Amino acid sequence: MGPRTDPETRERAARQVAMGEQPAAELARQLGVRSSTVWYWARRYAAEHGLPPPASQRGPQRRRSLADELLAGATTQEELVERLKAHRNAARERASSAKRAQPQAGKRARVPYEEQQSAIKQYLQRKASARELAAQHGVSITTIHYWVRGYRTERGIF
Description:
This protein is 67% helix and 0% strand. It is mostly helical. The chain folds into three domains: 3-48; 60-101; 113-155.
């Protein structure tokens, strides 16, 4: 058992989640454990202390507050539909901008051919190491070696 998960830390985290003082996901990040683990601690703490089970922050209460927010001040059905459409479009825009901002796992940015050739020449002339070139181009060291191997094979250099 590491220092982050000693019994006192677990009980403090469980109490904070069970009492609604802090979100389980935030505590999990701080402690370096999974949020499901913190939820387990909180449910166990609640049962041991005769408390109701902790409520999720993403559950019905959050959905109800969003619905209340969208309904507030809407006088006609058309106005409500427009608000719902605007909310949906804003959510889609946030999601698509987040996708554009970060490459998806497993997908790498393509490095243009000219940049590859320049990196290969720097590597072969010993002006830069594979590690430096990999960091510069946002690829793995193995990819640099792959480029060099392909270059040598094309030109018959071994």
